[in-house]
Design goal:
By secondary structure, the chain is of the alpha+beta class. 57% of the residues lie in helices and 19% in strands. It has 7 helices and 6 strands. The protein has a 6-stranded mixed β-sheet with strand order 5-4-3-2-1-6. It is elongated and about 60 Å long. The termini are far apart.
């Protein structure tokens, strides 16, 4: 099956834009957060050690994401090689916020539904799904997989919720333990990522409110 090479050549620009947009968003968030903390520290002149450490971590995250964004040609080539000499056709199970990718009975990836693109393949039977790993600390977030859309299945709870059988409001489902844990990938990642981001968010809200009070 030679169609993966044709697909990857045809969609390279599309996937490249998605890839750089993914990292650009995270770089912007990290640097804006670092800027707010640095500005507050310079104005109020307190918590120099803690805030300096936070700014350093956020800038390091921004630099790391910047370096990752430049790896697109290498990452894209690796994904193509995974589908050579034959395309790897996988099965997909959809839930509220993710696509679970299976190779036989083994789960090989979980893709965040936000921003997913389903690209038609040269082989009309299959679709090329392009998206990003659900985990916060994925080593390589870009995921591309071939699947048959006619074989797409729904996770049981999601299927029931689509049928109106869920007793939890839709806006609260994102914050269920199952979905939060899936975002982190494992228990340790869940604790580290959520505690860190909640701490940063708390600091940012506190600092922004304090600076607004100074102005008004």
């Amino acid at each position: 099956m030679a169609f993966p090479k044709e697909d990857f050549d045809y969609y390279e620009r599309t996937v490249s834009i998605m890839y750089r947009k993914y990292f650009r968003k995270r770089i912007t968030i990290a640097l804006v957060a670092a800027g707010i903390i640095a500005l507050y520290t310079g104005i109020v002149r307190e918590h120099f050690l803690l805030n300096g450490l936070l700014v350093g971590i956020l800038v390091a995250i921004g630099v790391y994401y910047g370096l990752q964004a430049r790896r697109f040609p290498e990452v894209y080539q690796q994904l193509l090689e995974e589908n050579q000499p034959e395309a790897q056709i996988r099965s997909v199970v959809e839930d509220e916020y993710s696509y679970h990718i299976y190779e036989g009975e083994k789960a090989v990836a979980r893709i965040n539904k936000a921003g997913v693109r389903n690209l038609p393949s040269q082989n009309k039977q299959y679709t090329l799904m392009v998206g990003f790993d659900k985990r916060f600390f994925a080593q390589e977030p870009l995921k591309m997989t071939y699947y048959d859309m006619l074989d797409l299945t729904y996770e049981e709870k999601f299927r029931l919720s689509r049928g109106g059988y869920s007793n939890m409001p839709r806006f609260l489902r994102r914050f269920t333990w199952r979905n939060l844990k899936a975002s982190a990938g494992n228990a340790v990642g869940f604790l580290l990522s959520n505690l860190f981001f909640l701490f940063i968010l708390y600091r940012l809200i506190r600092y922004v409110i304090a600076m607004l009070r100074m102005l008004f």
